[in-house]
Amino acid sequence: MGRLFGTDGARGVANVELTCEMALNIGRAAAMVLTDSAQKRPKVVIGKDTRKSSDMLESALAAGLCSVGADVQLLGVVPTPAVAYLVSHYKADAGVMISASHNPCEFNGIKLFSGDGYKLPDEIEEKIENIVLDQIIPYPQLIGGAVGDIKRGNTAGFDYIEHILSTVDCDLSGLKVALDCSNGSACKTAKKLFELLGAQVYILSCNPDGVNINHNCGSTYMDALREFTVAVKCDIGLAFDGDADRCLAVDENGNIVNGDEIIAIFAKDLKDRGLLKGNTAVVTVMSNMGFFKCCDELKINVAKTKVGDRYVLEEMRENGYCIGGEQSGHIIFSDYASTGDGQLTGVQMLSVMKRTGKKLSELARVMDMYPQVLQNIKVSAYGKARFNDDAEVKEAIAKVEKELGDSGRILVRISGTEPLIRVMLEGKDTAQIKMLCDEVAEVIRTRLV
After folding, report:
1. Intra-chain end-to-end CA distance of the chain, in Å
2. Helix 53-67 vs helix 20-34: crossing angle, to nearest 10
3. Is 101 an annotated catalytic residue?
4. Tens digit of each residue's pLDDT (9 = 90 or more) over 193-232
5. Which of 260, 86, 99, 105 lies closest to 157 in space, CA to CA?
6. Is 1's pLDDT higher than 90?
7. Are residues 186 and 173 in the same domain?
8. What is the model's pLDDT at position 321?
9. Does one domain contain both 426 and 286?
10. In the list 130, 217, 316, 435, which could disulfide-bond 321, CB 3.0-4.6 Å?
11. Which pLDDT does position 341 carry in this prediction?
């Protein structure tokens, strides 16, 4: 994890940690690094989510890009995966998404994509960091006609919808679908997309006001969707996060189907149809033990990466795998997308349901979830920096590992997007793992807060 970029871009409280000056300089540095091989005036597309600060940061980014000679095309409010797709579709040299994903409205972030639509590798982000934070290269001072232009596009949402439609060949008529848009980017595309496929669509949390993004809605708060799905007798509920690169599902009985279960459903379906490339699914170290047991029973190989959908994608690209993701709902279909895509995930899930004639609850029985507890401990910047070297924290973790043995596991890691240390335990005995999680969390609070 770098000094400026975490596992999912640069992120912080807008106008305090992620300032206009910072956005301006990220725009300058990104244009210098990402477009240095362009033989023409470089073009950069910018998308954003619905939070209040997105307009402010969009203006700063656009100004920074133009000041070093890049032309800018503003896409408006679109999902993150739309930017990832459109940067290549529009033949741009780079793309930027302004979003803090699932975080509250006071946060915002800047995600960068190269011209092929993929998130930047660590070494490229480090170059941008060095320019922004260390001023290792002066920003060019262009004048006159050398300064870039800013234009607004008006077809980004439609072009993205057309792309998602092209990934399936089915009619979803007869299926009732509830969509929780999290008052975010999905508000611009989700209803139209699923209606064009023939589904009967019900929309929740689709009245963005700049501050209600992710507030008691979306993939991080699914109670309202669960209740609605059951009350209206929907076949499925789909919950997106603020920038719609995540999707979690609710079955017809109101039970949450998480990312691990969704990946298991897709992996089995692809294997059954002879389409599972490398006979492998890719997940992170945070995936549930039940997922690995499921894949073992299905004779599906599992590749495991560190946390972050960027690392899942790197593994998929390197080895040609076609399905992967995270428990949080970042699901990647590498045949169709270069990043996690919530609406693509929803469309593909409905396609499986339609093709097999099975309810989501039946599909989800492909795997059994092991009991899992997770605590997020807010720590200071100093505590976060010395986490890996604290002897008492290491001792507490080792003690739990010894007690669990082969019947469970503990994973303690630094969040790449928030000032948190996450403690996760899995095992067969819920009471035991909760007690052990509390013990480790208390040591972390004592030593690192």
Report:
1. 20
2. 40
3. yes
4. 999 999 999 999 999 999 999 999 999 999 999 999 999 9
5. 86
6. no
7. yes
8. 98
9. no
10. 316
11. 98
